[in-house]
Write a structure and sequence with these properties.
It contains eight helices and four strands. It is of the alpha+beta class. A hairpin with a 2-residue loop joins β3 and β4. It is elongated and about 55 Å long. The relative contact order is 0.12.
């Protein structure tokens, strides 16, 4: 997965540069989402994986399936991906593009996984605290994982804070096994 993300990065950077230059960031974001959704379809995926179909034909068919969601620049981008045999990393390209878009818009994606549901008040307090710390708007998502036993894991950009009881028990187990 890390390898495909590395391969996807230059394509995402190129798409982002074109989108920014053309003042079409929202369009490109939507177009990439549409391409990923289309390529995720079982029949479309099989077509894209088929060695019997030319790269040019794959690009044409995928562009046709997406219809009006794609403009000329995004269609050209699909053709470049097809020529370089990179249609299989569309999802990674979209992920990288969205990271660039979030950075451009000064939005920090934060995911909280907790042992119990997070109240609206707790989520609001955490959002405000992180917004102040990172000087960015915070986009917060929450999830419940009872395996954590208690506490929470917070992922904010590249930072991971593991305040779960499960994480503490794992660290304790690791320490005891080393000694």
């Amino acid at each position: 997965m890390a390898e495909s993300a590395t391969i996807a990065r230059p394509y995402a950077n190129a798409a982002f540069a074109m989108a920014k230059r053309d003042e079409a960031l929202a369009h490109w974001s939507q177009a990439l989402s549409t391409l990923v959704a289309a390529s995720g379809n079982q029949k479309v995926g099989a077509m894209l994986d088929s060695p019997e179909i030319s790269d040019e034909e794959k690009a044409n068919r995928l562009s046709q399936i997406c219809g009006d969601e794609l403009e000329e620049r995004t269609i050209q981008f699909v053709h470049v991906l097809a020529q370089n045999k990179r249609l299989n990393i569309l999802s990674d390209i979209q992920d990288q593009f969205e990271l660039l878009l979030a950075a451009e818009q000064q939005v920090l994606d934060v995911a909280i996984t907790s042992a119990y549901p997070v109240s609206d008040q707790e989520a609001s307090m955490l959002s405000q605290s992180l917004a102040a710390k990172y000087a960015k708007e915070v986009s917060l998502t929450t999830d419940v994982d009872e395996r954590l036993i208690a506490g929470a894991i917070i992922r904010a950009g590249d930072t991971v804070i593991d305040g779960s009881l499960r994480g503490k028990l794992d660290k304790l187990t690791e320490t005891l096994q080393r000694n």
